[in-house]
Specification:
Distance between the termini: 53 Å
Radius of gyration: 24 Å
GO molecular function, one term: DNA binding
Organism: Stigmatella aurantiaca
Order of helices and strands: HHEHHEEHHHH
Shape: elongated
Structural class: mainly alpha
Largest sheet: 3 strands, antiparallel
Protein name: DNA-binding transcriptional regulator, PadR family
Number of strands: 3
Helix content: over 70%
InterPro entries: Tscrpt_reg_PadR_C, Tscrpt_reg_PadR_N, WH-like_DNA-bd_sf, WH_DNA-bd_sf
Keywords: DNA-binding
Protein backbone atom coordinates (compact mmCIF):
# COMPACT_ATOMS: atom_id res chain seq x y z
CA UNK A 1 0.00 0.00 0.00
CA UNK A 2 2.85 2.39 0.87
CA UNK A 3 4.51 1.67 -2.47
CA UNK A 4 1.27 2.36 -4.33
CA UNK A 5 0.81 5.63 -2.44
CA UNK A 6 4.38 6.70 -3.18
CA UNK A 7 3.96 5.77 -6.85
CA UNK A 8 0.77 7.84 -7.00
CA UNK A 9 2.58 10.84 -5.50
CA UNK A 10 5.40 10.41 -8.01
CA UNK A 11 2.97 10.38 -10.95
CA UNK A 12 1.16 13.46 -9.66
CA UNK A 13 4.44 15.30 -9.15
CA UNK A 14 5.55 14.47 -12.70
CA UNK A 15 2.24 15.69 -14.10
CA UNK A 16 2.47 18.91 -12.05
CA UNK A 17 6.01 19.61 -13.26
CA UNK A 18 4.99 18.87 -16.84
CA UNK A 19 1.97 21.18 -16.53
CA UNK A 20 4.11 24.02 -15.19
CA UNK A 21 6.80 23.63 -17.87
CA UNK A 22 4.29 23.65 -20.73
CA UNK A 23 3.54 27.32 -20.00
CA UNK A 24 6.62 28.31 -21.99
CA UNK A 25 5.49 26.26 -24.98
CA UNK A 26 2.11 27.98 -25.05
CA UNK A 27 3.98 31.30 -25.02
CA UNK A 28 6.41 30.19 -27.73
CA UNK A 29 3.54 29.06 -29.94
CA UNK A 30 1.86 32.43 -29.60
CA UNK A 31 5.10 34.35 -30.22
CA UNK A 32 5.64 32.33 -33.41
CA UNK A 33 2.48 33.96 -34.72
CA UNK A 34 3.66 37.50 -33.96
CA UNK A 35 5.59 39.48 -31.31
CA UNK A 36 3.47 40.09 -28.21
CA UNK A 37 3.57 41.69 -24.79
CA UNK A 38 2.45 39.88 -21.66
CA UNK A 39 -0.89 41.66 -21.96
CA UNK A 40 -1.16 40.66 -25.62
CA UNK A 41 -0.43 37.04 -24.70
CA UNK A 42 -3.25 37.09 -22.16
CA UNK A 43 -5.69 38.25 -24.81
CA UNK A 44 -4.41 35.89 -27.50
CA UNK A 45 -4.58 32.83 -25.23
CA UNK A 46 -8.12 33.67 -24.11
CA UNK A 47 -9.25 34.36 -27.68
CA UNK A 48 -7.72 31.31 -29.39
CA UNK A 49 -6.84 28.36 -27.14
CA UNK A 50 -8.72 29.44 -24.02
CA UNK A 51 -11.45 26.83 -24.50
CA UNK A 52 -8.99 23.99 -23.91
CA UNK A 53 -5.83 25.54 -22.45
CA UNK A 54 -5.59 28.02 -19.62
CA UNK A 55 -2.56 29.64 -18.08
CA UNK A 56 -2.26 31.51 -14.82
CA UNK A 57 -1.75 35.09 -15.97
CA UNK A 58 0.46 35.67 -12.96
CA UNK A 59 2.91 33.16 -14.47
CA UNK A 60 3.15 34.79 -17.90
CA UNK A 61 5.42 37.69 -16.98
CA UNK A 62 7.92 35.65 -14.92
CA UNK A 63 7.92 33.03 -17.69
CA UNK A 64 8.70 35.67 -20.32
CA UNK A 65 11.61 37.00 -18.26
CA UNK A 66 12.95 33.48 -17.73
CA UNK A 67 12.59 32.66 -21.43
CA UNK A 68 14.44 35.85 -22.35
CA UNK A 69 17.29 34.87 -20.01
CA UNK A 70 17.40 31.40 -21.60
CA UNK A 71 17.48 32.82 -25.12
CA UNK A 72 14.07 31.47 -26.12
CA UNK A 73 12.55 34.93 -26.52
CA UNK A 74 14.00 38.39 -27.01
CA UNK A 75 12.79 41.93 -26.45
CA UNK A 76 11.42 43.21 -29.75
CA UNK A 77 10.37 46.71 -28.69
CA UNK A 78 8.66 48.71 -25.99
CA UNK A 79 5.21 50.22 -26.40
CA UNK A 80 3.30 52.71 -24.32
CA UNK A 81 -0.28 51.77 -23.48
CA UNK A 82 -3.14 54.33 -23.62
CA UNK A 83 -2.78 54.62 -19.85
CA UNK A 84 0.90 55.53 -20.18
CA UNK A 85 2.27 52.20 -19.00
CA UNK A 86 5.29 50.81 -20.85
CA UNK A 87 4.80 47.30 -22.23
CA UNK A 88 7.64 45.05 -23.33
CA UNK A 89 6.91 43.27 -26.60
CA UNK A 90 8.75 39.97 -27.07
CA UNK A 91 9.57 37.95 -30.17
CA UNK A 92 10.56 34.31 -30.48
CA UNK A 93 14.20 33.51 -31.25
CA UNK A 94 15.60 30.80 -33.52
CA UNK A 95 16.41 28.78 -30.40
CA UNK A 96 12.84 29.24 -29.20
CA UNK A 97 11.49 27.91 -32.50
CA UNK A 98 13.76 24.85 -32.25
CA UNK A 99 12.71 24.15 -28.66
CA UNK A 100 9.03 24.47 -29.59
CA UNK A 101 9.45 22.13 -32.58
CA UNK A 102 11.20 19.55 -30.38
CA UNK A 103 8.37 19.71 -27.83
CA UNK A 104 5.69 19.38 -30.54
CA UNK A 105 7.28 16.10 -31.68
CA UNK A 106 7.35 14.57 -28.18
CA UNK A 107 4.60 12.19 -26.97
CA UNK A 108 1.79 13.90 -25.09
CA UNK A 109 2.13 13.67 -21.30
CA UNK A 110 -1.05 12.12 -19.82
CA UNK A 111 -2.83 14.32 -17.31
CA UNK A 112 -4.95 13.50 -14.30
CA UNK A 113 -8.36 15.12 -14.70
CA UNK A 114 -10.03 16.64 -11.64
CA UNK A 115 -13.76 17.06 -12.26
CA UNK A 116 -15.60 18.48 -9.26
CA UNK A 117 -19.01 17.95 -10.85
CA UNK A 118 -18.44 14.20 -11.28
CA UNK A 119 -16.93 13.90 -7.82
CA UNK A 120 -20.02 15.51 -6.27
CA UNK A 121 -22.32 13.31 -8.34
CA UNK A 122 -20.41 10.20 -7.29
CA UNK A 123 -21.16 10.97 -3.63
CA UNK A 124 -24.52 12.59 -4.39
CA UNK A 125 -26.58 9.97 -2.56
CA UNK A 126 -25.39 11.57 0.69
CA UNK A 127 -27.53 14.66 0.07
CA UNK A 128 -30.15 13.41 -2.38
CA UNK A 129 -30.95 14.19 -6.03
CA UNK A 130 -32.00 17.84 -5.58
CA UNK A 131 -28.46 19.19 -5.08
CA UNK A 132 -27.02 16.97 -7.81
CA UNK A 133 -29.73 18.12 -10.22
CA UNK A 134 -28.85 21.76 -9.48
CA UNK A 135 -25.17 21.04 -10.26
CA UNK A 136 -26.08 19.40 -13.58
CA UNK A 137 -28.42 22.24 -14.55
CA UNK A 138 -25.70 24.79 -13.83
CA UNK A 139 -23.12 22.83 -15.81
CA UNK A 140 -25.57 22.52 -18.71
CA UNK A 141 -26.19 26.28 -18.78
CA UNK A 142 -22.44 26.98 -18.74
CA UNK A 143 -21.87 24.49 -21.56
CA UNK A 144 -24.56 26.13 -23.71
CA UNK A 145 -22.89 29.51 -23.20
CA UNK A 146 -19.43 28.12 -24.01
CA UNK A 147 -20.72 26.31 -27.08
CA UNK A 148 -22.23 29.51 -28.47
CA UNK A 149 -18.95 31.38 -27.88
CA UNK A 150 -16.89 28.61 -29.49
CA UNK A 151 -19.13 28.53 -32.55
CA UNK A 152 -18.51 32.25 -33.00
CA UNK A 153 -14.75 31.63 -32.75
CA UNK A 154 -15.07 28.84 -35.31
CA UNK A 155 -16.93 31.10 -37.73
CA UNK A 156 -14.42 33.91 -37.26
CA UNK A 157 -11.33 31.71 -37.67
CA UNK A 158 -12.60 29.65 -40.58
CA UNK A 159 -14.32 32.53 -42.34
CA UNK A 160 -11.64 35.21 -42.19
CA UNK A 161 -8.48 33.12 -42.68
CA UNK A 162 -9.36 30.60 -45.37
CA UNK A 163 -5.87 30.59 -46.91
CA UNK A 164 -3.87 30.52 -43.67
CA UNK A 165 -1.55 27.46 -43.59
CA UNK A 166 -2.28 26.83 -39.89
CA UNK A 167 -6.07 26.88 -40.33
CA UNK A 168 -6.53 23.06 -40.52
CA UNK A 169 -4.71 22.67 -37.19
CA UNK A 170 -6.71 25.45 -35.53
CA UNK A 171 -9.92 23.91 -36.83
CA UNK A 172 -9.07 20.50 -35.34
CA UNK A 173 -8.69 21.97 -31.85
CA UNK A 174 -11.91 23.97 -32.20
CA UNK A 175 -13.79 20.88 -33.41
CA UNK A 176 -12.60 18.96 -30.37
CA UNK A 177 -14.09 21.66 -28.17
CA UNK A 178 -17.37 21.77 -30.11
CA UNK A 179 -17.85 18.00 -30.12
CA UNK A 180 -16.85 17.74 -26.46
CA UNK A 181 -19.39 20.37 -25.41
CA UNK A 182 -22.12 18.79 -27.53
CA UNK A 183 -21.41 15.41 -25.92
CA UNK A 184 -21.44 17.02 -22.47
CA UNK A 185 -24.85 18.55 -23.18
CA UNK A 186 -26.22 15.15 -24.20
CA UNK A 187 -24.86 13.70 -20.97
CA UNK A 188 -26.42 16.57 -18.99
CA UNK A 189 -29.82 15.77 -20.51
CA UNK A 190 -29.47 12.10 -19.54
CA UNK A 191 -28.27 12.98 -16.05
CA UNK A 192 -31.11 15.45 -15.59
CA UNK A 193 -33.72 12.85 -16.54
CA UNK A 194 -32.17 10.25 -14.23
CA UNK A 195 -32.00 12.66 -11.29
CA UNK A 196 -35.56 13.86 -11.88
CA UNK A 197 -36.73 10.24 -11.74
CA UNK A 198 -34.80 9.75 -8.50
CA UNK A 199 -36.35 12.90 -7.03
CA UNK A 200 -39.83 11.73 -8.04
CA UNK A 201 -39.23 8.30 -6.51
CA UNK A 202 -37.97 9.90 -3.31
CA UNK A 203 -41.06 12.12 -3.03
CA UNK A 204 -43.36 9.16 -3.68
CA UNK A 205 -41.58 7.10 -1.03
CA UNK A 206 -41.92 9.88 1.54
CA UNK A 207 -45.64 10.25 0.81
CA UNK A 208 -46.14 6.51 1.21
CA UNK A 209 -44.24 6.52 4.49
CA UNK A 210 -46.43 9.34 5.81
CA UNK A 211 -49.61 7.46 4.83
CA UNK A 212 -48.33 4.32 6.53
CA UNK A 213 -47.63 6.28 9.71
CA UNK A 214 -51.28 7.28 9.88
Amino acid sequence: MVHLYQADISVREEVTVARESTCQFAILGMLCREPMSGYGLRQAIARTVGHFWQESYGNLYPALERMEAEGLAALDREERSPGGRVRKVYRVTAKGRRVLAEWLRRPVVPHVERNELLLKLFFGARVGPKSSLAHVERSRAEAIELLAALRLIDEDVCGSREDHPELPYWHLSIRAGLLGLEAHLRWCDEAREALQRLAHTKRSTKKKEKRDER
